[in-house]
Design brief:
The complex is a heterodimer of chains A (177) and B (365). Chain A is mostly helical and 177 residues long. Chain A contains nine helices and no strands. The two termini of chain B are 27 Å apart. Classes of the chains: A mainly alpha (177), B alpha/beta (365).
């Protein structure tokens, strides 16, 4: 029986390690988050080995799916070039694509609030968005504002590049609620 | 009998919508579809009844409010919005009335308007028609007005307060969420109304706080969608939206972030410089032009008759001059100034008590 438990734990560790690799980060927070998940999964393992294997597999799948989702959403963020194709009327007030980008950022934050294992990839998304000079400044400012607000709340260190974030973007972010 | 009663009620409702109505002292013209009238009434009622527990201090100073609460915010709007017309209202032909003999203030017009650039045309979400009529009249030296509900309303000031709403203000895809009368959508629409209402302020060269062309380097470069002052329509829209967002009780995270991005977008349009290039970019640009200039100088020595090269040399030299001017501008730091919001012409300022009385009457109905 003890040998069986050890085997289960090894299986879990492998699955969780795979999950960590997806994040490609050296942050120790990931390990802490993974430990919490590991602990929860071990508790569940008392029920059945089959259920556990399915659960751990689903978990890593979820994480990789989330990264795919983030990659896809990142591509949907409006660039400065996208705005050039709009008409005078469409740019008089906030263009639809810019407003929708706010929805994307909000949804990602929600996902990460509800599942702490998604916080590091979400934080990376916000950082990359804030630093991407091709994106619309208003969207970058909201991403920067999220990053700065969430670092102390989520306890995730996320260094930002001064070279990539201009004074205009920082100034804009500082004016947001 | 029931059917007759229902038909009578339906007819009465459609007739009353057709005749236009007054809500909180604001005339909602019959050209506005009934559903839009209902939404506008709810939005204005929401603003007036908002207790406002926290607010952006910039909003208070920018709007010049002694106190920030629903009645004071509504009063600010009421002093700038007296009539709202629908998208179907035709701003030409018999609806336009002109009268000679009116004496306009002898202040100058903004250069862009004096040079025939119509900054007010073609806005589909909302536009301040009143300010446009006043400026048009001033330019032509003819008092201009429009026919509304059987009367002629003349634009004696940009503050005459005639706004036109387009269907864009109510379109689901342009709103925050798919619940048209949600708090988040009310905030979005009210932000737009505050923006347009601000176009009724200002005088002389900054009459109507009209927009400027966004400079090179700006995301909206070339569009007339920026402003150089720190208290224009975009700034006011941003701080008003921010204040309402801070008091939103039902906004979820997605709603909030969408509203935040609209606030950031509005703030991003306040641009003081004629360009958004960095010093490094400008120096690189100058060096590149200089290398090409040197080439043409040599080329012209060897080929003195090349007219095309002479022209190109002149063009490149003017580009270098432009970059040098921009560099000079960049090295002389200035911050956006607040312009005097006092409007010109004749208008009457209503007190908070007056506008509150009108709104309370409408809300009691």
């Amino acid at each position: 029986m003890k040998k069986f438990d050890v085997l289960i734990i090894i299986l879990i560790l492998i699955s969780v390690a795979k999950g960590i690799l997806i994040f490609r980060s050296e942050d120790e927070k990931i390990t802490r988050t993974s430990e919490i998940h590991l602990h929860k999964t071990v508790e569940r393992s008392e029920t059945s080995q089959q259920e556990l294997t399915v659960l751990t597999r689903e978990q890593s799948l979820d994480q990789s799916k989330f990264q795919d989702f983030l990659d896809l959403e990142f591509k949907s963020l409006p660039t400065i070039d996208d705005l050039k194709n709009l008409t005078e009327e469409e740019v008089h007030f906030t263009p639809e694509a810019v407003k929708e980008a706010g929805g994307v950022i909000g949804r990602i934050q929600d996902e990460a609030e509800n599942d702490s294992s998604k916080r590091i990839p979400a934080m990376n998304f916000f950082k990359n968005c804030a630093e991407d000079q091709e994106l619309v400044p208003a969207v970058r400012a909201v991403c920067l504002n999220k990053t700065l607000k969430l670092i102390p709340i989520w306890q995730i260190p996320m260094p930002l590049s001064d070279e990539l974030i201009s004074h205009e973007i920082s100034d804009l972010a500082s004016k947001l609620p | 009998m029931k059917r007759t009663l229902a038909l009578t009620l339906a007819l009465t409702t459609s007739l009353s919508a057709g005749a236009g109505e007054n809500f909180g002292g604001i005339e909602l013209d019959s050209s506005i579809p009934a559903t839009q009238v209902r939404t506008l009434k709810e939005d204005l009622g929401y603003l007036y009844s908002n207790p406002i527990k926290g607010f952006d201090v910039d909003f208070q100073s920018m709007a010049g409010l002694s106190k920030v609460d629903g009645p004071h915010m509504y009063n600010w709007l009421y002093n700038r919005v007296k009539h709202i017309i629908g998208q179907s209202y035709k701003l030409y032909g018999r609806n336009i009335v002109k009268k000679t003999g009116h004496s306009f203030p002898s202040t100058p017009l903004p250069p862009s308007l004096a040079n025939n650039t119509n900054q007010f045309a073609g806005i589909i979400i909302m536009s301040n028609v009143g300010a446009s009529l006043y400026v048009m009249g001033k330019k032509e030296k003819k008092l201009t007005g429009i026919k509304l509900g059987g009367k002629t309303v003349f634009a004696l000031s940009p503050r005459v307060g005639i706004l036109q709403v387009g269907e864009g203000l109510f379109l689901e895809r342009l709103l925050i969420n798919n619940e048209p009368n949600s708090e988040a959508n009310k905030i979005k629409r009210l932000g737009t109304i505050f923006h347009e209402a601000r176009h009724g302020d200002g005088h002389s060269e900054h009459i109507g706080f009209i927009h400027n062309a966004c400079p090179p380097g700006h995301a909206l470069s070339g569009f007339d969608a920026c402003e150089a002052s720190a208290n224009g329509a975009y700034s006011l829209e941003a701080v008003a939206t921010k204040t309402l967002l801070e008091n939103c009780l039902t906004c979820n995270n997605e709603d909030k972030t969408k509203l935040e991005v609209t606030i950031a977008d509005a703030f991003s349009r306040v641009v003081l410089r004629s360009h958004l290039k960095t010093e490094k970019q400008l120096l690189e640009e100058i060096a590149t032009y200089q290398r090409v200039i040197d080439f043409y100088i040599d080329y012209l020595v060897k080929n003195p008759g090349s007219e095309m090269s002479v022209k190109e040399l002149a063009r490149l030299k003017s580009k270098v001059k432009e970059c040098e001017d921009q560099l000079q501008e960049l090295r002389t730091p200035v911050s956006a100034q607040k312009l005097d919001a006092k409007p010109e012409g004749t208008f009457k300022e209503a007190s908070v008590e007056e506008s509150s009385l009108l709104m309370n009457r409408s809300l009691r109905k």
